[in-house]
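User: Structure please.
Assistant: Input sequence and predicted structure:
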Amino acid sequence: MVFNFKYENRIYEFYMSTENLYAQNAYRHMNIEMRLLKIFGVKLKEKIKQFKKNGLATEYAFLKALGIYTTEELAFSNIYHFENLNDSIVSSTYRCD
């Protein structure tokens, strides 16, 4: 179930499910994105903010910032590529230039 509302010019969205939290796509994406931000720091954060300002979806913005060429439609599933890679492999294989 999804519940949306607007309060003081901000839009809020709540998602509820009976599925285990750790198996939910949003939770998995959040963890992957937090790891990538931790590995690549402020430079990645600023690139993503700019891409988001230009209307890109979050997952697509992350992949584009790391030089991974994909479509916006495939980015949602392609972000899982990072889920099982350790931090040293990610930092030595990908760049945020």
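DSSP finds four helices and two strands in the chain.
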